Amino acid sequence: MATVKLFLLLALCLAAHALPQIPPRPLSTIFGDEKLPGEVFENIDKISDGLARNDYNLYRLPRTTRPVHYNVFWAIDITRLALEGEVNINLVANQANVNEIVIHTHELYIDNVVLQQNNIVVPTTHIEETQYHFLRVRLNNTVLQYNPTNPVVYTLSISFGAPLRTDMYGIYRSWFRNNSTDDVRWMASTQFQATSARSAFPCYDEPSFKATFDITIRRPTINYRSWSCTRIRESVQVENTTYTDDIYYRTPVMSTYLLALIVAEYSSLEVFENGNLTYEVIARPNAIDNNQGVYAFEVGQQLLAEMNNHTAMTFTSMHPYLKMTQAAIPDFSAGAMENWGLLTYREAYLMYDPEHTNDYYKQLIAYILSHEIAHMWFGNLVTCDWWDVLWLNEGFARYYQYYLTDWVEDYMGLGTRFITEQVHASLLSDSVDSSHPLNNPGIGSPASVRTMFSTISYNKGAAVIRMTEHLLGFDVHRQGLRNYLVDRSFDTALPIHLFENLQAVGLSSGSLSAYGTEFNFIEYYRSWTDQAGHPILTVNVDHATGDMTITQRRFDINVGYSAINTNWIIPITFATAANPDFNNTKPSHVIRNTVTVINRGSIGDHWVIFNKQQTGFYRINYDDYTWNLIIMALRGPNRVQIHEFNRAQIVNDAFQFARSGLISYTRAFNILSFLENETEYTPWVAAITGFSWIRNRLAGTPNLARLESQIARWANTSISELGYYPPQNESFMRSYLRYQLAPVLCSIGVPECREAALQQFRNLINNGVEIPPNSRNWVYCNALRDGSEADFTFLWNRFLNHNVYTEKILLLSVLGCTPHRNSLITFLNAIVQDNYIIRPQDYTTAFNSAVTGNEGNVQIVFEYIRNNLSNVTAAFGSASVPLSYISSRLRNETAINEFRAWANQNRVELGDDYQAVLNGADNSLDNIRWAASVADDLNNYFVAGDASLQLTSTTSSPVTQPTTVTQPPIVEPSTPALPDSAVTTFVSLFALTLAIVVNIVL
Questions:
Q1: Catalytic residue among 34, 86, 280, 372
Q2: Nearest C-alpha neighbor of 282 from the set 357, 228, 358, 245
Q3: Cα distance between residue 398 and residue 41, in whole Å
C-alpha cells in the first residue's frame, strides 16, 4: 500500500511539473464594456430564473396530445391597433386515458373554448396558468379516444383577441413615414421565435409540435395588402365592411414559431414563374420606388439558387405553394427572421442605396439574406427538436451566412472574415467557466430559452461545423448534410441524427480511415457539443529530435487554465519552416489524451505553427524558444510564408494569453511587433479588436498615451498604403480595412486622420460634395469632435430628413461624437422622449454613441440621467442598461464613489436595478485595479521595446529563464518502440500513465 501511495505521490508531482499551471490571478478580466448590449459577454451576469435543472419540465407541454392541423383567422384592425381571431386546432391523443389538453397562450383575451369530435361538442372546462403560459382544457367526466393506427381527430376551437403588441414580439404594431415629411403610418408585423406564437394565437408553441396551417388574414381593403408564408389562394371582400379576407394556401408541416403575417401599405418587386409568385422583396413604397430593394432582389435570388445547388434540394420542391418574400420591417427587435416563405428584416438589413449605403451594410444585407435563406433547410425543413440544441438551426445558418455569401459575392471576403468575426468572437465568449455547451439540456422557461440565442449557439456552432468540414473534406461533409436533410425532412432533429449521417458518409468515403479504428466520429463531435469551453494546446518542441509534446487543458480568460478538467478529441494540423504548407487543412492527427507526443518530421531550430488556417476550435501556446522562432519569422522577409489566417490567430492568441496571465504583455507585444510591416486584413482586424480592449482598460492612466503611440507607429505602414481618400476601383477588402482602421487612428489623435476627416466634412457642408459612404463612419464622428454646434445641427437635420435607413443608423452611431452639451441633450431627448424620431430598437446604438463619442460626454450623460431618471427608465424598460454605459466608463475612484453615492441616494427609484447598478461600479473599480496590476509590465515594453532574438548554435532549445508561464518539456524515459497509429506518431508510456493519473486525480 505504501508503494502505491508513493507511486501516486510521484505521479502527482510529475503531473504538477508536466502540465501547465494556473497562475494566481485574483481579478476578473471581464469588464463593463464587454457586458453592454450586443457585446460578447452581454448575458454573463444575467440572474437565472431560479429553476433547478430538473424543474425545466414545468414549462414544457405534455406529450399526451399533438396537433395535426390548424385553421387560423386573424382580423387586423389598423385603426384601433388591435387584432381579433379564431383558431381551430385538429388534434389527436398520443396515449390512452387523456382527459386534458394543454396548449400555450400568453396575454390574449380568450373566449368561447369548444372541443368537438365529429361536430359533437365534448363538454370541457378551461383555466389559464399564466406563470407557464398554459391553457388547460379539461374534459368533463370523459377521456379522449385513442387509436394508434387510426387516430381519432378532435377540433379545439378558441376565439381570442389582443391589442397589437408594442414590444416587437407576437403580432405587433410598427410605424413608418413613407417620406420624411409624411404623417406616421401604421402596420402589423410578427416575430414568433422562440416563444411568442402563443402571444398571437393559442397553439402548441414548441418546435417539435409540427402541423399544417390554413391561414386567413382580414385587412383593410383600401391601400393595404397582407402577406403570409404561402401564396394567396383568393381574396374575398367582406360584405358591408371596408375589409378584405386574404385566404392563403395550406402551409407545409411546420413549427408555430415559423409562421408570420404582415398587413401594410407596402410595395413590392416580384418574380413570377408559370403565373405563380416565386420571389419578391417588399418595403415601404418610397424605398421600393427609389430602387433600394434591387440589391436584395437580385442577390437574394442568386443566393437561393446557390443553396438549391449546394443541398441538391430546391426550395420550390419543398412545397407547391411556398414562395419567398423578403420583407423590410421598420421596427424589428430580432434583426431578421426566417419565417417560412415570409422572411423579415430590419429595413437597414435589406434596403440598399449605392449612393448612401456603405459596404458594411451592403455585406450585412448579403450575409443576413444568406443566413435566413439557409434556414429554409436548416431550421424550417429540419428543425431542432428543442431549443437546447438550437445550434442545429443557428450554427448552420451562421456557417452559410459566411460561406454561401462567399460563393456568390466572393469579393466581400466572407471566407476570410469568418476567422475574426466568428472563430475569435466565439473563442472569447466560450472562455469562461459559465459558458454553456452547444447541447444544453435543462432549458424550459422562456427566459432560459432566450439564453440559448447566444454567441455559443451561433458563432461556436458555425466554427465547430467548419472544423468538422475540414476533418471530413468539403465534398464528404456536403454529402452527409444532404443525407441529413433528406432523412429528417419536415421533422425535427437531434444532434445524433446529424452525427450518424456524417459518420456514415465519412466511413463509406474513406475520409476517416486515416485516423485508425479507435477513432469514433460521434465521440469526436460530442466532445465539442456536449462540453462547454474549448482547449488550449501547449506545445513544447524538442528541436533536436522533432518531438512535440502537446498538453491540452480548458482555457479560461481570467486565469489561463480552467479548474474544470476537460478533454476533447482534437483534429491536429501543423506547418513548419521545413514544410510551410498551410493549404492542406486535412488533419494529420487526432488527439484525445491530456498529453500527446507527435514528431514533426524535421529537426533543427525552425518554427512550427499549429492549426493551419485556424480550422480547429482551439488556441495554441508554445514554449519560449519556439515562440522566439515564430517571432523571428514574422519579423523577417518571409513573414508571408505563414498564412494570413494564422498570423491573425497568433495576434488574437497573444492578446488573450496576456489578458489571462499566461504570458506577459512584454512577451505579447514582442509577438505583435510584426504588425509594423503587416498590411493584410485579418491580422490587422484581430489587432484592432485586441488594442480596443486594452485601450478601454488603460483609459485614464499614463500608459494609454504610450499604447496609442505604439499603435500609431505599427499602423503607419498599413494606413500609408490605404490612405485616407479611397481611390477609384478599390477592392472591397482594402476599403473595409480602412473602414475599421481609420476610426481607431482618428480616435487616438493621428493628425493626418483628423485632418482628412475635417477636409471631407467641410467639402460636404460648403460644396455639397458627398463623403464616400465607406468613410462616413469616421469622417462624421471626428468632424463633430473637432467641430461646432452648427456641425451637429447639420448632421442632426440630415438624420431627421434622410430617407435611406442605413444612413440614418450610421448617423445615430456617430452623433454622440459631439462634445457640446446642448447638442448632446438634443440627441438624448430624442432617445428618451416619447416621439417618432428614434426607434426603440435603435436606443442602445444612439445611447452608446452619446456616451462613447467623447470621454467628456460621460459626465454630461450621467447628469442627464440623474435629472431624467424616470423618463430614461421608461424608455429602456430599466435603469440598469443606460447606467451600465456610464459605469463602464468611470475612469477613477473619485468618479466611481460619486456614482455609488448617487445610486445609494436613489435606491428606491432604482428598485430592482439597484444591485446591477452597484455591480457596474464595482466592475469599473476592478478595471482600475487590473490596469494597475499590468502597468509595470506594459511600461517595460514601452521603454525597452522589442527584444533582440537570436538562434542558438545548436539544434537544441537553449535553457533560459522563462519570461512566460510555460512548462519545461517532459523528459521521456527510454521505452520500447511503439507501433505508429493514426492518432499519434509516438505516445510514450510515461505520457499515457501521466494522462491516466491526471484524469483520475483532477
A1: 372
A2: 228
A3: 19
Distance CA 690, CA 561 (A): 20
Task: Band the pLDDT of 53: cuts 50, 70, 90.
Answer: low
Rounded-to-integer distance, Cα 466 and Cα 416, Å: 13
Look at residue 433 in the predicted model and tell me its pLDDT.
92
281: helix, strand or coil: strand
Tell me what pLDDT residue 54 has.
Answer: 57
CA distance 927 to 136: 51
596: β partners: 550
Pairing between strand 491-493 and 382-384? parallel
With a cut of 90, say whether residue 45 has pLDDT above it.
no
Q: Report the candidate in 372, 393, 375 with the shortest Cα–Cα distance to residue 384.
A: 393
CA 503/CA 511 separation, integer angstroms: 10
Mean pLDDT, rounded, for 480-484: 98
How many CB atoms sit inside 10 A of residue 100's CB?
15
User: In whole angstroms, what is the distance from residue 576 CA to residue 394 CA?
Assistant: 36
Q: Three-state DSSP class for 284?
A: coil
For the entire predicted model, the pTM comes to: 0.90
Q: Give the C-alpha separation, 323 to 549, whole Å.
A: 56
Asked about 129 being catalytic, the answer comes back as no
The average pLDDT across 262-288 equals 96
How far apart are alpha carbons 684 and 946 in whole angstroms? 19
pLDDT at res. 790: 96
Q: Are 319 and 381 in contact (CB under 8 A)?
A: no
**Element containing residue 94 per DSSP (H, E):** none
Helix (H, G, I), strand (E, B) or coil at 80: coil
Q: Which amino acid makes up residue 553?
A: R
| Cell matching residue 552 | 491540452
Cα gap 288→884, rounded to integer Å: 39
Q: Cell triple for residue 295?
A: 440589391
